Amino acid sequence: MYKVGMYGGSFNPLHLGHVNAIIEAANQCEELYVVLSNTNDPNEINHKERLMWLKTVTRDMEKVHVFEIFDENVDKNVYDWDIGVKQVKDYINKPIDVIFAGSDYKGKNVWEKAYPESKVIYIERNEISSTLIRSNPYKYYEFLPNIVQRYYIKKVCVIGTESCGKTTLVKNLANLYNTAYVYEAGRYICDKAGGIDNMQKKDYFEILYRHKQLENDALNQANKVLFIDTDSLITLYYYQLDFPECDDLDKAFEMVAEGISKLNNYDLYLFLEPDVKWVQDGSRTYGSDEIRNRNNLILKKLLEKNGIKYISISGDYRERFEKSKTLVKKLFE
Fold it and tell me: Checking DSSP bridges between strand 225-229 and strand 119-123, what pairing results, if any?
């Protein structure tokens, strides 16, 4: 067994071939250093994301240590190996007995030149590569660790005023795509509060945080796409309907709701128009056509104020479902 080994790459993205190589290398060393190599290429996945992936998949491997190095070049094909080698050696600060590399490097003499004092062992790699995955991550989805799959999950948010079919559509789409969905946290919290008329400001803050946590949990079960019933701006919309005054707490709520909306960065917003029959479910108060249309305009102005680009969906439940399927399909083309 070797004392110190090193395995490096850009891991853009990390895939199961990399994970297999890390395990094989770790099984041959007392200590293995996994090096994330970064450049200034704007097309690379954020280095913090990639570092998190590596730390996550190796967290139970006690002998594996993960760190990153940086190169100022934009193109990794002109990577400055001398600077990279110095950063690696300075960090490890002990003799490196063995360098592990994918078999695609065999015969290129790259690692032998960079680390002449170390043995180089090539690990046979399968047909998958980061380049291939980047060309179509959904085609090669099964080659990605779960933590990396989360990064590629498309997020579709269904929004609109009350009783316009959001929950029905979200559940139907989730069933069709065999995936998870995020239910509207406001329903549960409204019931807990004793109904819509008994909601307090603190309840709306709870909705914001609960809904975001539900989304985070659902990502662990999602299959390529996640459907979300409403978002923080819908919660802000209801808050401002219930509390039209504007004190310091109201301003704080607006700031939090809009901040969460910016973090969401959803791939698709489906806006359901209020042209289906209004149904009272015990938590609704805005049933007349006049009020529904007025509130619909209020919500659209709020979305536009926050730069949300949505696609309007109208028609009966069947038409909404068919239109939504077409739009979701386009996300993967």
Answer: unpaired
Q: What single-letter amino acid sits at 247?
A: D
At 50-65, the pLDDT tens digits run 999 999 999 999 999 9
Q: Please name every residue paired with 38 in a beta bridge, in sequence order, or none if there are none.
A: 70
Quick one: tokens of 318? 């069947």
Distances in whole angstroms, Cα of residue 67 to Cα of each of 10, 21, 53, 64, 88: 12, 17, 12, 10, 9
Q: Is 87 helix (H, G, I), strand (E, B) or coil?
A: helix
Partners of 153 in the beta sheet? none
Which residues fall within 8 angstroms of residue 239, CB to CB, at 6 or more apart? 201, 204, 250, 253, 257
Domains of the chain: 2-138 (3.40.50.620), 153-330 (3.40.50.300)
The sheet carrying 225-229 orders its strands as 181-182, 225-229, 154-159, 268-272, 311-313
Cross-strand pairs, 123: 102
List, in sequence order, every residue forming a beta bridge with 120; answer none if it has no partner: 99
| pLDDT value at residue 245 | 86
| CA distance linking residue 48 with residue 264, whole number of Å | 18
CA distances from 71 to 80, 148, 227 (A): 7, 24, 39
pLDDT in tens, 265-310: 999 999 999 887 655 544 445 546 678 888 899 999 999 999 999 9
Q: Can you give the pTM of this predicted structure?
A: 0.90
Q: Is the peptide bond before 13 cis (omega within 30 degrees of 0)?
A: yes
